[in-house]
Amino acid sequence: MKIGIIVYSQTGHTLLVAENLKNKLTAAGHSAAVERLVPLSGEKDGKNIQFGNLPDLNQYEGLVFGSPVQAFSLAPVMAAYMKQLPPLNGKKVACFVTKGLPFRWTGGSGAVNRLKKEAEVRGGKVGAAGVIVWRGTSLDSNIAEVVDVISKSF
């Protein structure tokens, strides 16, 4: 299956998870590509976010959306991108978010649910989702667990 991993990453943490996922999917026999969202404007204040070239989602049979959590919510750049999604026409979709604070109530669950909802509204068949907490001694196992769950959903 050809899978696009569409990711917004400010610090590189979310991108690292996307690269791990790409490697796992490729090892499982899929064709996977990471496409990084880079806004042209609006990233700093989260308003009037504009993109240049957006990924062509038609080339993929499956999609993964990844984003950091910012201010207890889905990052404004990813939220703006998700609002511009074309119809997904039944494509398999998975989602993940990364965050710094260790508690679920600090935005991780809400952010991943927002990604799922935006994909479902556009006709995506959402399966696996995960939250990666970027602090603590279990970071590597948390990344590996989420990558494993998502990769098995394709």
From TrEMBL:
One of its GO terms (molecular function) is FMN binding. SUPFAM superfamilies: Flavoproteins. It comes from Methanocella arvoryzae (strain DSM 22066 / NBRC 105507 / MRE50). It comes from the Archaea. Residues 3-154 form the Flavodoxin-like domain. This is Flavodoxin-like domain-containing protein. The lineage of its organism: Archaea, Methanobacteriati, Methanobacteriota, Stenosarchaea group, Methanomicrobia. Gene3D superfamilies: 3.40.50.360. Signal peptide: none annotated.
